[in-house]
Design a protein that fits this description.
It contains two helices and 21 strands. It is mostly beta strands and 306 residues long. It has a single domain (8-302), classed as Neuraminidase (6 Propeller), CATH 2.120.10. The strands form five sheets. The chain has a five-stranded mixed beta sheet, with no helix packed on it. The chain has a four-stranded antiparallel beta sheet with strand order 1-21-20-19, with no helix packed on it. A hairpin with a 6-residue loop joins β19 and β20. It starts with 7 loop residues before the first helix and ends with a strand.
Length: 306
C-alpha cells in the first residue's frame, strides 16, 4: 500500500504515546540508498552481524539489497527466475548449519491472488558481494501460499527454523489471522494450505483515534495494520511493525508463538516513519531496525536498555 501524502509534521502530530518499555527512543541509523525506494521488508544477515537485507515493494526488481545499518550498500543479490509480483517481507534463518534468506511474495491488496509464494535462497558470503555488480542467486526451494479460509492480504512474515515453520500474519482482517506453513515442502511435494492457528485481537494493535480515522494515510486510519514481523534469533521475542507502532511480544521458553502474540505487547516509542513496512531484530536479538517506503527513507534503530 502506497501513501498518497508524506507529511512529516502530520506524522509527528499523530504519533501515539508509548507504554513504558525497556527500549530507548529510536535513533536514525541511516537512510535507504537508491535504488531502494519502497523498502517493504528487512532481515538481519546471519553471516555478518553488521549487515541487513531489504528489498523493494511490488513491481520492483527481484533483487535483495545488502546494506550496512547506516544505509551504505554492500551488494545486490538477484534471485534468478523469481518475479517481484508483490514482495512484502523477508526473513533470515539458519537451517542444517547454513544461513538462508526467505522472500515473501504474499502481498494481495484485493485478497484474490492465487500465485503467492515464498522463495528461499542461500545467503551468500558477504565477501562475494559488490555494490556495483549484481550477484546471482538461484531459488533453493519455493513454497506456494494459499490459505485454508480463502485469500488474505499479508505483509508480515517470520520464520521459526527450529520448528520448521513459517508464520504469516494477515494485514486487513479483524481480528488478525495468524497462519503457519511448513518451512520445507513435504516429501511428496504437496504443500498444504496455510493453517489458521490463532486470531489476534484488535486490542493487540494500538488503534487509530477518532481524528486519525478520518485521514486516509497509513499513519491515520490504517495505523493499526501490521506490515512486518520478525522473531529474535534466540527465540526471546517477536516484533511486529504497524504503520503507527513497533510492538514487542515476549516469548517464554516452551510456549508457542501464537501464545506469545496474544499477550499484550510492549509498545515502543513511535518510529515516526511515513509508511513503515520493514522490521527486523539485529543479530544480537536485542536491537530492532525499522524501514519505510519512500525515497531516502530513514532506517530507525531501537536499542534495549536492559
Amino acid at each position: 500500500m502506497r501513501a498518497p501524502f508524506l507529511y512529516a509534521g502530520l506524522i509527528a502530530l499523530l504519533s501515539a504515546c508509548a507504554q513504558t518499555a525497556p527500549y530507548e527512543a529510536p535513533q536514525r541509523a541511516g537512510a535507504m540508498p537508491a535504488p531502494i525506494r519502497e523498502s517493504s521488508g528487512l532481515a538481519a544477515s546471519r553471516r555478518d552481524a553488521k549487515m541487513i537485507w531489504t528489498h523493494n515493494d511490488s513491481g520492483g526488481q527481484p533483487v535483495l539489497y545488502a546494506l550496512d545499518p547506516n544505509g551504505a550498500r554492500r551488494g545486490d543479490l538477484r534471485i534468478v527466475g523469481a518475479v517481484n509480483q508483490d514482495w512484502e517481507d523477508m526473513a533470515s534463518f539458519e537451517l542444517d548449519g547454513r544461513p538462508w534468506l526467505l522472500v515473501a511474495d504474499v502481498g494481495d491488496n484485493g485478497s484474490q491472488r492465487s500465485d503467492c509464494a515464498l522463495y528461499v535462497v542461500a545467503e551468500p558470503d558477504p565477501a562475494t558481494l559488490s555494490p556495483t555488480q549484481e550477484t546471482p542467486a538461484t531459488v533453493a526451494w519455493q513454497i506456494p501460499v494459499r490459505y485454508l479460509d480463502g485469500p488474505r492480504d499479508c505483509e508480515a512474515v517470520a520464520v521459526d527454523a527450529r520448528a520448521g515453520l513459517v508464520y504469516l500474519l494477515a494485514k486487513r482482517t479483524s481480528p488478525r489471522g495468524l497462519y503457519t506453513l511448513p518451512l520445507r515442502p513435504p516429501a511428496d511435494g504437496v504443500v498444504p494450505a496455510a493453517m489458521p492457528i490463532a486470531q489476534l485481537p484488535d486490542s493487540a494493535f494500538p488503534q487509530p483515534t477518532a481524528a486519525q480515522k478520518l485521514l486516509p494515510i497509513p499513519t491515520g486510519r490504517y495505523r493499526a495494520q501490521p506490515t512486518g514481523m520478525d522473531f529474535a534469533a534466540d527465540g526471546s521475542a517477536a516484533v511486529v511493525v504497524t504503520y503507527g507502532d513497533v510492538l514487542v511480544f515476549k516469548h517464554e521458553p516452551g510456549e508457542t508463538w501464537a501464545t506469545a502474540l496474544k499477550r499484550p505487547p510492549l509498545v515502543l516509542s513511535p518510529h515516526g516513519l511515513a509508511q513503515a513496512e520493514g522490521v527486523s531484530f539485529g543479530a544480537d536479538s536485542r536491537t530492532i531496525y525499522v524501514s519505510s517506503e519512500g525515497d531516502r527513507s530513514g532506517i530507525m534503530r531501537y536499542r534495549t536498555s536492559k
